[in-house]
Write a structure and sequence with these properties.
CATH topology of the largest domain in chain A: FAD/NAD(P)-binding domain
Oligomer: heterodimer
Radius of gyration of chain A: 31 Å
Distance between the termini of chain A: 22 Å
Distance between the termini of chain B: 37 Å
Number of domains of chain B: 2
Helix content of chain A: 25-40%
Number of strands of chain A: 34
Largest sheet of chain A: 5 strands, parallel
CATH class of the largest domain in chain A: Alpha Beta
Largest sheet of chain B: none
Strand order of the largest sheet of chain A: 10-7-6-18-29
Structural class of chain B: mainly alpha
Structural class of chain A: alpha/beta
CATH architecture of the largest domain in chain B: Orthogonal Bundle
Radius of gyration of chain B: 19 Å
CATH superfamily of the largest domain in chain B: Alpha-helical ferredoxin
CATH class of the largest domain in chain B: Mainly Alpha
Chain lengths: 661, 188
């Protein structure tokens, strides 16, 4: 018979102010298996914990029930207390009489008292059946995969590599750099984006600990924390990068011009191309969909011109597998497709209604206009520019409910740039709220106002073309009147949304996608770069909209988590995971598809029954590295062969009986 | 309500003149509304002080100079004292009245403009205010002869208001002050 001790916590007045804790402790003594019961003001405090240790020793307790707050808050605390007293830490059960009782029933103390006792009875019933559990260990592969080569992926890769670990960086575009290299200047200090990001790109390509796969995609992820096996698909570039010297002759001679996606279609590029002059690697790829040779069978000019003989029209896709111990997802963002949603802004029909990213390219010295702000329709300098914020953001009807966080600041920066570069320019900024929470952000916004930008509080309801002007109609809610502006160019701060293909990446690494399409972190405040899948971390805007400083901070945070993990020789696993009783498993396999972590698989065992020939049988098997103890398999299992340790069927039934019978 | 065309309606010259006259940068206004919240006259104004500031940010000259609010402002300067951006809102109001007066746009509240004129006239003439004269003058010009007569009678019987004006010493200095101001105005 177990010897159970019950410890009732007052939690100051949180519990003690609603129910009679001494009475609860007295009542608990009568529960089956309970040999000792007491109460204390703050059980989690040092004296509170010591009183538990003392009671375990004095009363030879072998199970402990703490009736206090949620186990989410203090289960770890009290498990350590048990360990200090020499008990297996998993012989603890908590009764949550704060969140589940006194906080919600503080107006009805009598009923709260009865419910508290019921909750304690439940915990005691389970405690009677608790078994000691022991963590096991799994080996650690000291390498890291980073998916995505934008500023988040670059920063993570550099930090992990600098810590001395091998990094595999995979980027699906022909160059790393992501969105940040497209930007002109960065708020609030106005340093040139390329000047601060391209050196990091070069550092990635030259770092001895980093293996870079550009124009490649992660095709599959198997395994579990410490032991992932990753399949990488290297797309066909038709250029042998081991031979190519990056001279650029092929690009110069290629006869086919197509819309340049790096400049968002504001100019053209060739069919064989290096995305931009500072690309890493600085070597071209052939866009086969537009290449004259691939579409008509004739041309081969690039092959003829290439002195290094690097052009290879027969090149095939290659598949590489790499073993890693940790994975960082840094897949970034793209801009919301505003043209599909906003008919009132012209559905994208007006060439001079552009996005903030177009503006970045227009104002960038390396962009299609050489840094002159010229409107796309007639290449003239716009004198009146209207900025519209929250296009697709804060618009649950047409776009996303959330705030995209960076737009207020980059719009202020754009306004500043127009006023600086275009003499006599007028700038109007339509906004709902101006949000500038960041170091030196508010000051930058105020500076833009001082520069002469007119902020108009209201959402634009319509944009239409009138001659060579764009009439922007909105409302000034501070003035209380509808207003209109005759603009030469309109710049929309369109929402950030997650990158295309995020669902595929999420599925491969078993990370949840939230309601807005971002990857779900393990805890919004306390575990912001971790996920619910062990060994998988998040960096940058794949987790939610953020600006460059926050992205870099999060990337370094993810890197430090990864480094901490990779420094270990082996990993202790949570023992509260599924286990299979092979004796009663029928091998039906229902548990395999329900597992969200691909932790259950079928295997064949050989049974030896005395007097019979050895017999082969299929049973389920749980990979302890992958299992997160969610219990989905337990529910699916008809014979009850697969159960979660610490949450066995017998324990759960005993809890239900204690409350309901 | 017709749309205010911000590009056409914004009067940049007016904004510059006001900035020079008041020494204030109305662009800096947060539109937080603290001026209006503390204004003892806001209840009577057609446009509250923060909206006057908003109109100034947009350069809506006519709306501001034709408003009653600028004349109702008592220059108590509660707004100025409380403004988080240190804008002298009362000073801006003062500058606006001067500009309205210069342009002859005083129809919004004729009685206040008239009172200002008669008041200053009395000071110029006697060196101090002759209350009875100012009151009667205002009543005559407004065509409301018996306005506030009950209060006036009481004040006179208690000896708080004199029937005849008295002059101060130093009439010459008063005249010089007025002449200097006229010269400054002409120079503008």
């Amino acid at each position: 018979m177990p010897r159970i001790g019950v410890f009732v916590c007052w939690c100051g007045s949180n519990i003690g102010g609603v129910i009679d804790c001494p009475k609860l402790a007295t009542d608990a003594v009568n529960l089956p298996g309970v040999v000792y019961s007491t109460e204390y003001k703050y059980m989690c405090s040092e004296p509170g914990q010591n009183s538990i240790i003392q009671a375990i020793r004095d009363h030879r307790l072998d199970r402990v029930v703490v009736a206090s707050c949620s186990p989410r808050l203090h289960e770890e605390t009290f498990r350590k207390t048990l360990a200090r007293a020499g008990l297996n830490p998993y012989l603890l059960e908590m009764a949550n009489i704060r969140e589940h009782c006194t906080w919600v029933h503080n107006k009805e103390p009598e009923k709260a008292q009865a419910k508290s006792l019921a909750l304690v009875s439940r915990a005691v019933a389970k405690a009677n059946l608790l078994e000691p559990l022991f963590p096991s260990s799994i080996p650690m592969t000291k390498r890291c995969l980073v998916i995505g080569g934008g500023i988040a992926g670059i920063q993570t890769a550099l930090d992990v590599a600098d810590a001395g670990h091998e990094v595999i960086l995979v980027e699906r575009e022909p160059t790393i750099g992501g969105n940040m290299v497209k930007l002109d200047k960065t708020f609030p200090t106005l340093d040139c984006s390329a000047c601060i990001s391209t050196p990091k790109m070069v550092a990635v390509s030259t770092h001895p600990n980093i293996t870079l796969y550009t124009y490649s995609e992660v095709a599959g992820v198997d395994g579990y924390i410490g032991n992932f096996e990753v399949t990488i698909r290297c797309k066909v570039s038709y250029v042998d990068h081991t031979k190519c010297t990056g001279c650029g002759d092929c690009q110069a001679k290629c006869p086919t011009k197509v819309s340049n996606e790096f400049n968002l279609g504001l100019d053209t590029r060739k069919a064989i191309y290096i995305p931009f002059p500072q690309a890493v690697p600085n070597k071209p790829v052939i866009d086969a969909a537009n290449c004259r040779y691939f579409t008509t069978g004739k041309c081969k000019i690039c092959q003829k011109i290439c002195a290094a003989g690097a052009i290879d029209y027969e090149q095939q896709e290659t598949i590489i597998t790499e073993k890693v111990g940790a994975i960082v997802v840094a897949t970034g963002y793209q801009l919301f497709d505003w043209a599909a949603a906003y008919g009132e802004y012209g559905y994208g029909r007006f060439p001079d209604v552009v996005t903030g990213m177009h503006f970045e390219r227009l104002v960038n010295a390396a962009g299609p206009t050489g840094g002159k702000i010229l409107r796309p329709s007639d290449q003239t300098e716009p004198k009146t520019v209207v900025f519209v914020k929250c296009v697709g953001s804060r618009d649950p009807a047409k776009g996303k409910e959330y705030c995209s966080r960076a737009c207020c600041m980059y719009t202020a920066k754009h306004a500043h740039q127009v006023l600086e570069k275009v003499p006599g320019a007028k700038v109007y900024i339509f906004y709902i709220d101006v949000r500038t929470p960041g170091k030196a952000y508010e000051e930058f916004y105020q500076r833009t106002i001082s520069d002469g930008a007119v902020y108009v509080r209201g959402r634009v309801s319509k944009i239409y073309q009138l001659g060579d002007k764009l009439v922007v109609r909105g409302s000034d809610t501070l003035l209380g009147r509808p207003v209109e502006v005759e603009a030469d160019m309109v710049v929309l701060a369109s929402a950030m949304v997650s990158s295309g293909g995020i669902e595929d990446v999420a599925r491969m690494v078993s990370v949840q996608v939230d309601k807005d399409g971002w990857l779900q972190e393990a805890h919004p405040k306390l575990r912001p770069v971790e996920t619910h899948t062990g060994g998988v971390f998040l960096a940058g805007t794949c987790q939610g909209p953020k600006d460059i400083p926050d992205t870099v901070a999060q990337a370094s945070a993810a890197a430090s988590k990864v480094s901490g993990l990779l420094f270990r020789e082996e990993l202790a696993t949570d023992p509260m995971i599924s286990t299979v009783n092979q004796a009663i498993c029928t091998g039906c396999g229902l548990c395999v598809p329900v597992c969200p972590y691909q932790a259950v698989e079928l295997k064949t065992i050989t049974e030896r029954i005395p007097g019979h020939a050895p017999r082969e049988r299929t049973v389920a098997s749980v990979n302890s590295g992958l299992c997160q103890g969610c219990g989905a398999c337990n529910v699916a299992c008809r014979p009850g062969a697969i159960q979660v340790k610490g949450f066995s069927n017998d324990e759960l039934v005993a809890e239900v009986d204690a409350i309901c019978l | 309500m017709h749309h205010v065309n911000l590009t056409a309606a914004a009067d940049a010259k007016f904004q510059e003149r006001l900035a020079k006259a008041s020494g204030q940068d109305v662009k800096q206004c947060y539109q937080c509304g603290k001026c209006t919240a503390g204004c003892p006259i806001a209840y009577a104004m057609d446009e509250p002080p923060n909206r006057i500031m908003r109109m100034l940010q947009l350069g809506l000259k006519d709306e501001v100079l034709d408003s009653k609010a600028i004349w109702l402002c008592s220059t108590c300067a509660t707004c100025t004292t409380r403004c988080p951006k240190n804008i002298d809102v009362a000073g801006v109001m003062d500058s606006l009245r001067v500009m309205a007066k210069q342009e002859g746009r005083t129809r919004a509240l004729r009685s206040i403009d008239l009172f200002n004129d008669i008041f200053l006239g009395s000071v110029r003439k006697y060196g101090r205010v002759h209350e009875f004269g100012v009151g009667m003058g205002h009543n005559l010009r407004m065509g409301k002869l018996l306005k506030d007569v009950d209060i006036g009678t009481g004040l006179m019987t208690k000896g708080r208001m004199k029937l005849f004006p008295s002059k101060i010493k130093g009439q010459g200095e008063i005249a010089r002050i007025f002449n200097e101001v006229y010269k400054l105005e002409e120079a503008e």
